[in-house]
Design a protein that fits this description.
With 261 residues, the chain is mainly α. 79% of the residues lie in helices and 0% in strands.
Length: 261
């Protein structure tokens, strides 16, 4: 069997390990789904009347059309916390030392975490989407648009997962690992999740327009609701590729450093 075959086999084994951990300890998965749903209910029913009127003079039934895509992206970004904690727990609780004594591919542990987290994130995004539909969101996407939605969610999930893996490797404790991804998680709040960037104060508007999540949210909104994408799709793809590359290089370098320490 070739080295590549061993690496694929070991990665599949680590993926099964990660998925079993998610099933045995579902608290993190539930929190990944619960947080965006809570914000959806808060902004739709608590603030939706005022925000919807400010956007288009519409009630919250129309505001959810604007809100839902941002909430879905918010859910994808929040999944990084569980990934960072899981990676850090492996690094700090001694399991890595046990794996070092076994004839397995070193990179398979990270691969298992990344693939498992992406699967968890996609499932969570699907659940959040179903909740938004139950609350009145009516996407107009066709088959091609839905494929674009899936591709975008996968791209964001992969980018956020690799960044979260790197942050989990940098953190000293699982508690610290749960805090480091927070700035990434809050970026959608400072984007076009709840209101258009154009309606913000000048300084915040500049930040919202040039941070990664505004074009990502606008792209998802365009795919789901049929609004014009403009150049948002290209910008979103560039941000996802850049974040994924940075996270991958950083995580692999840090993992090698930790593994030889």
């Amino acid at each position: 069997m070739s080295i590549q075959s061993f690496a694929i086999r070991d990665s599949a084994t680590m993926l099964r390990r990660t998925l079993r951990h998610m099933l045995r300890y579902p608290g993190m998965t539930i929190s990944v789904v619960a947080m965006p749903v809570i914000f959806l209910l808060l902004f739709l029913y608590g603030l939706g009347g005022a925000l919807g009127a400010g956007l288009s003079g519409a009630d919250h039934g129309h505001y959810i059309t604007f809100l839902a895509p941002g909430i879905i992206v918010l859910g994808v970004s929040s999944a990084g916390i569980s990934t960072a904690v899981a990676v850090n727990t492996d690094m700090t609780k001694g399991i890595i030392n046990r794996f070092r004594t076994m004839p397995i591919s070193r990179g398979s542990l990270l691969t298992g975490h990344v693939v498992g987290s992406v699967i968890q994130t996609v499932i969570s995004a699907a659940i959040v989407t179903c909740v938004t539909v139950a609350l009145g969101f009516r996407p107009t996407a066709g088959l091609g648009d839905w494929l674009g939605v899936l591709a975008l969610v996968l791209a964001v999930a992969i980018a956020m997962t690799w960044l979260s893996v790197a942050l989990g490797l940098v953190a000293k404790t699982p508690e610290n690992a749960s805090n480091l991804p927070m700035p990434l998680m809050f970026l959608p709040f400072l984007g076009s999740t709840f209101v258009p960037a154009q309606s913000m104060a000048p300084g915040l508007r500049w930040f919202a327009e040039y941070q990664p999540f505004t074009p990502i949210i606008n792209t998802l909104r365009g795919l789901l609701t049929g609004t014009l994408l403009g150049n948002n799709g290209y910008i979103a793809a560039a941000w996802c590729a850049g974040m994924a590359l940075i996270g991958y290089v950083w995580a692999r370098a840090r993992f090698r450093r930790n593994a030889t320490a």
